[in-house]
Design a protein that fits this description.
2 copies of one chain form a homodimer.
Chain A lengths: L2 E7 L3 E8 L4 E8 L3 H4 L2 H15 L7 E8 L22 H9 L3 E5 H12 L7 E7 L3 E7 L2 E2 L32 H4 L1 H13 L14 H9 L3 H25 L3 E5 L7 H14 L8 E4 L6 H17 L1
Helix pairs in contact in A: 2-3, 4-10, 6-8, 7-8, 8-9
Chain lengths: 316, 316
């Protein structure tokens, strides 16, 4: 039987996984990421871990279809990492190095794109031809998958939907330096910021605007009838629905999947986003479905395995 | 030698063309479109014209790689036309009918997408892997081409960038029923509307706001120092630059090509759009190039030929 490895390389841990050639997860485990000395040990650590795992399981090189690696960095069309600040890397050809050490085909992908592929193959996007993932976390990231392939775009910059300008009247800058980016309103940070603003503007609420607040607190407060929390959710949904309508005008995906911490709010998030999406969407695009991410923390490893298995099918 | 036919089917004329299998245009000619009786003669007219042309040139069926047809209608992923109001058609499987009559492989594509493929293959997008065409005419249409393939999207609705909401403060509805669509500002109609607005609001200008005005008059007036005309161009560029920045966040195309009547304004249009694109674009996307459409009225037939020749390569 054939296998592949899916590896989700993060700033604190490296998640390893073994999949069958049918895409079934067999085993997963993780190591701390050795970020010391500008991350110089990371690639050899991955190579040795895999060679060791193959040894223990008596796998021959011929049995291993490939290794897919998701990296927290911009990855260009040829698979080269430009800068990975969390790992300490400058320009690095991860795939080439890993291939030299293991003699196994290697595929490198941006970690957000790996998660998008994972959601497409096994999560909220399953069963669709085209999907956009929006990850509503500290910021808003995402990925675009068309016919089983991630759209990387010029210099790997596709899928950065968090930086669509949705409000050109904004006076506070986004972390990116622009004004009115989607992530200023529809991230976990964004909904908390909105909550504080509404509270300070006199809307009633149960949370102190000056204390520590997390996105989940705001969603919990909505259930308690908190006015500021409801308005913060409306703002999040308004701008997210508007951005999704813009995305639909460009590529008209079959489904838009919402992931990240904010997506744990569930049905109330979907309902709010869909309401504003219907308001802003061009009529032929109004059939677009919305779904919650479903692959959880394993999205990355699933996506890396899918990348390997799908690349194999193509070169067959 | 192998050949293919490219056909641009419009509401008033059908443009026929013959290309070599290397993509070289050999011959083109046109017929009026027989739109009588709900367009029931159109497909047989195309089939007979081609069979006749083959006869006259002693082409065997084996020499003809395929027929590509651009249709002024939404075409779904399987090539079926849903409704084509300009032709009088209801749901029609154009490719199947044409194939039955000619016994030659047929490929059907939306006419705006055909023009986008034509610009990609032989016009302003030539030499790039990914391209977005924005056609600034009476409305704003367009097409998205990634790695030589048009993105059709759910129900054929991709590439409708003219209906991205760029101004949620707008109180006048777009033809689509929504408010603040790109085409309300950045089409030929849009710049004329803006001109009239600025004149009526007291800006100085050489054209009467109550007389007939065309987009080219506005561009000519700019050269004469017309204040209202300059502001209308700034508004066009502001919203177009903003929409292009949103497009870049989604798919980060290598080049954005501007076509349609408004693009005859040339360098002054490019300069204005680029200025606002730089303001709104997420920094990794700022390398996106801008170009003017270059395939002119032949974009459609070039795109249809490219579609046939590219589909052939894939099935090889």
């Amino acid at each position: 039987m054939g296998y592949c490895y899916g590896i989700d390389l993060g700033g604190t841990a490296i998640k390893f996984s073994l999949f069958t050639d049918q895409g079934k997860l067999v085993e997963k485990w993780q190591h701390p990421t050795k970020i010391e000395e500008k991350g110089k040990y990371i690639i050899s650590d991955i190579a040795l871990t895999i060679l060791d795992h193959m040894d223990q399981n008596n796998f021959s090189k011929e049995q291993i279809i490939g290794i897919g690696v998701g990296v927290p960095a911009v990855v260009d069309e040829s698979g080269i990492v430009n800068v990975a600040p969390n790992l300490g890397w400058k320009q690095t050809d991860v795939g080439k190095k890993l291939r030299e050490m293991t003699d196994i085909p290697c595929y490198v992908i941006n970690d957000a794109n790996a998660a998008a592929l994972g959601e497409y193959a096994c999560g909220g996007g399953r069963g669709n031809h085209s999907m956009v993932l929006l990850t509503l976390g500290t910021g808003v990231g995402g990925g675009v998958v068309l016919d089983g392939k991630v759209v990387t775009g010029l210099g790997g910059a596709a899928g950065e939907m968090g930086h669509i300008c949705v409000n050109d009247q904004e006076t506070i800058p986004c972390n990116c330096g622009n004004y009115g980016c989607l992530e200023q309103y529809s991230s976990a940070t964004g909904i908390v910021r909105s909550y504080r603003e509404f509270r300070n503007a006199g809307k009633s609420g149960i949370l102190s605007p000056d204390g520590p607040i997390e996105a989940r607190d705001v969603f919990d407060a909505i259930k308690e009838g908190d006015q500021a929390a409801s308005e913060a959710l409306e703002r999040l949904g308004y701008y997210l629905g508007k951005a999704c309508a813009a995305i639909a005008c460009v590529i008209a995906p079959e489904v838009i999947v919402l992931g990240g911490g904010v997506s744990h709010a569930g049905e109330i998030l979907l309902t709010t986003v869909k309401k504003y999406f219907q308001q802003f969407a061009f009529s032929p695009c109004r059939q677009t479905k919305f779904a919650l991410a479903a692959a959880g923390n394993d999205a990355g490893i699933y996506g890396c395995a899918y990348l390997v298995l799908n690349s194999r099918k193509e070169s067959d």
